[in-house]
Amino acid sequence: MNLERKCSVTTMGNQDQSPGNSGDDGHSKGQIVENPPQEKVTIETEREETGIDWISELPDALIVQILSQLPIQDAFKTSILSKRWQYPWTSIDNLIFDNRNTNWSDRENVINKFISFTDNVLPLLCCSKIKKFCLYFRFCLVASYSSKIDKWLEIALKNKVEDLDLEIWYYDQNPYVLPQVLCNNSSIVKFNCEFCRIPEECVLNWTSLKSLTLTYLFLRDEHVEQIVKNCPQLESLKLCEFCGFHRLHITSPKCRSLQLIDHAHPDGDWGPFGGDCSFEIVAPYIQHLKISGHFDNVEIRLGDLSSLVHADLTFSVDVVFDKTVELLLSSVRCANELMIPCWFIEMIYVSVLEKKKDVPLLMLKCKQLTINSWISKNAILGIGVLLKSTPYLENLMILHEEGDFFVWDEDLEDEEFDWSGDNFLSLHENIFKGSLQNLKHVEVTSNCCSCQHKADTTERLSEFLKSLLEHAKNLEKLVIAPWHNGCNISSANISKVIKNLLAFPGASNIAVVSLGSVSGVDFSGE
Question: What is the pTM of this model?
Answer without folding.
Answer: 0.79
